[in-house]
Fold this protein.
Amino acid sequence: MSFSKYPTPMISSILVVDDSKSSRKVNLALLHELMGDSVTYLEASGGEEALATLTSQTVDLVLLDLTMPGMNGFDVLAEMRRLGLSSRVIVVSADIQRVAKERVAALGAVGFIEKPIRLEPLRAVLAPFGANHG
Amino acid sequence: MAEELFTEDERDVLGETVNIAMGKAGAALAEAFEGFVNLRVPEIRAVSAADLRATRTRLEKTYERISVLEQEFFGELAGRIAVVYGPASYAALRQVLGFDDRDGDGQRQREELLLELGNALASTCVNEIGTLLEMRTGLRAPRVMAFDIPTTAQDWHLFADIEMASGQMLLIDIIFHLEAHDVPFELMITVQPNCVPALKQALNKRL
C-alpha cells in the first residue's frame, strides 16, 4: 500500500527502525536485494535511538515499526513532524488496523507494509525510490 | 526467567511472531468495536505453577469483577489460552454489542457473545502463531471459567489444572487497550513444557 504521490527522489541512506533484531536483519537483507550496495544502511532498535540518528545525520528513507517499547512508531512520526524532519517514512508493522494505517498516513508516512514483510510488497512500495524491478 | 527456556535470539523471533499474531487479533477486536486498539509489546516469560497462582492474585488486585474464557489448543503447539475481561471491558462489550442486563434471562446470550469474541481473539492468535512457525495446532471449544463475578469469589479459576504442574512453561501476556472505551482486554497464553523443544526448533529455523 503506497500513499506516495511524489516524484522519484534519490536514495542514498535508509534507516531501519525495529525493536526486533531478527526483523531488522530481514528488512536489511530485503533492502540490499532491492536497493543494492550503493545505499548506506543504518539501524535503530527503538524510537529514541531513531530520532537521535535522524537529528544527527541525513537519512533519505526510514522503515519504521509501530509497536515498540518506550517511544512507539506513532510517537516517532509525530516527533519527526514537530522537528521538521523531512525523511520519507514507510511503516512496516503488524498493527494492521485500518485506523492505524490512516493515522500513520495523516502523520506523514508515505507507505505501509504489513508484517511479516515480503519482498514483493516492499519492492512495490520502494519502486518510486529506485528499487530494482526484479 | 525466559532465558532459562530460550536464547536471546529465540526470544526475539518468538516476540516478533507473537507481535504479528497480536496484530491480527487486535485488528479483529478493532473491527468488532469499530474502534482503535492500542497494541503494546507482549510480555513473554518462563513461569512456574507458583507464578501462575501469582498471576491470579494480580488479577484479583487489578479487577473487582472478572469474566474469564479459556480454550485449550493441541498438537505440536499445545497449551491453554485465556481471555480475561475486567468490569470495564465487560461494560464496553455490553454497550457495543447491546447486552441488556435488565433481562434476567439474557445471561446465556451474554455468555455466548463473550465466548464468540473470546474465541475470535484466541483462535486468531493461536492459529497465526502456529502458521508463522509452521507448527500444527488446533483449538478445542472455549469454556467460560468465570462470568462477571467478584474476583474475591473462590469459585473461578485461571489455568486451573496446570496450576499444579511442575517445571517451567511459557507464558505470553498480551494486553489490548480499547482506546475509545479506555479499557483493557487481556490475553494469556501458556505453552506446555513438552512443546518447548519443537518450539525452539521452529524458532531456530527462522534465525
